[in-house]
Amino acid sequence: MTASVKIAEATLIATQAAGAILAAQATHLEVPSLIGAAAAISGSAAAVLFRVASPAEDRPVEGTWRRGVSGLCSLIVGALFGFWMDDTMALLPMVSGVGSFFVGGLMGFGIVAVLQSAKTRDAIQNGVVGLVRRALAAFAGAVTGGDE
Amino acid sequence: MIPLGMKNAHHDVWLLLPCAMQVVCAFLILSIIAEQRSAVVRLACLGRWASPFHRLCRLVAGLAYVGAIFGASVSGLAILGSLTGAASWELSQAQNDFGVMISRNAGAIILFHVAGLVWVHARCVRSR
Hints:
The complex is a heterodimer of chains A (about 150) and B (about 130).
Chain A: H1 3-27, H2 34-46, H3 64-85, H4 97-116, H5 118-145
Chain B: H1 16-35, H2 52-84, H3 89-127
Helix pairs in contact in B: 1-2, 2-3
């Protein structure tokens, strides 16, 4: 038996074992889904790869480690978001239970990245403050309007 | 043959440390690959910097590190499941092996990435 056949057989057996484990996990979702949590972590990490498609120039080398450590916090928050989303995303077509955790992690990292952007943060802050002001004005108008 | 009822071979809280380190280190390298185009070697005969082929190479290298993160997470969470009793020791050990298999498959690509970086570094040092 040649080495390539042995490798092919080993790969096939490993793939079958992996499929069996995934199936076992998927049918025992009442137990905390351990593979799902791993999928959420890797989904959150995979969100960084969107930068590869960005046509922008390279960022300066100086702050690479600082940005990397900052990204770790986003990774953790994104993974927690993915784990919290559970299998909700499985409602989407072609997304399985484990894939749902992955998509959740992807979304979580994206949400954190959007919130980290100063422009978006300011826009959200302005929107919320504006809404609160309008609500307060309407409340004050309703309270004082009846007396006048 | 492992006798039934035997404890998981990976039933050790200290094994969570290398798993976490693998996730952290792989993520840091992944973020460098995503930020800096020079983090992946360019083959002169296959296009210039930021060409579609080079982007594809960066994407593949990045996916390999995502695989390493997934493998380490699967292994680490299997150990965690064994420690907390959330999973049976058979399932936990099988999941651990599954994680190791993914890490090894990712390592096959990471090896080429690291070899390319070493090659470029050696050329830079020699040219000085």
